[in-house]
Amino acid sequence: MTFTSLLQDKRLTILLSGEIDHHSARETMEAVTEKIRVYLPRYCELDFGAVTFMDSSGIALVIHTLRAMNELGGKLRLTSVPPQPRKVLLASGIQNLVALSQERSPA
């Protein structure tokens, strides 16, 4: 699992790629939280476009990121979610807590 982050106008976009599983989730959660602490965004977007596999550890990543954004009074959005990760997310009911979108937000 790797990611790239972009910041523009208080909007932090995190482009996730690879597999989100128990081997990678903790390190990714810590890195994402650090980005949020440093940049203090109003909006955070987790872009799943290049995620090839996700297990329940991905749900933990989303919840962890949601908590960090809630502490700032910010918003979280999940975008470009491929079918397999989408199935995992929908099975968890995460759509009741955070917005899911097929497309990435405009910059």
Give the structure's gist in a few sentences.
This protein has helices at 25-39, 56-72, 83-92; strands spanning 2-8, 11-20, 43-54, 75-79, 99-101. The chain is 39% helix and 35% strand.
Instruction: Name the average pLDDT.
Output: 94
Strand content bin: 25-35%
**CATH H level, superfamily name:** STAS domain
Q: Compute the separation of the termini in Å.
A: 24 Å
Number of domains: 1
Main β-sheet, spatial strand arrangement: 1-2-3-4-5
Radius of gyration: 12 Å
Structure description:
With 107 residues, this protein is an alpha/beta fold. It has one domain: Transcription Regulator spoIIAA (2-Layer Sandwich). It is built from three helices and five strands. The chain has a five-stranded mixed β-sheet with strand order 1-2-3-4-5. Helix 1 runs parallel beside helix 2. The protein starts with a strand and ends in a 6-residue tail after the last strand. The relative contact order is 0.19. The mean pLDDT is 94.
Task: Identify the notable features of this structure and list them briefly.
single chain; alpha/beta; Transcription Regulator spoIIAA; 35% strand
Task: Please describe the topology of this protein.
Blueprint: E1 2-8, E2 11-20, H1 25-39, E3 43-54, H2 56-72, E4 75-79, H3 83-92, E5 99-101
Parallel strand pairs: 2-3, 3-4, 4-5
Antiparallel strand pairs: 1-2
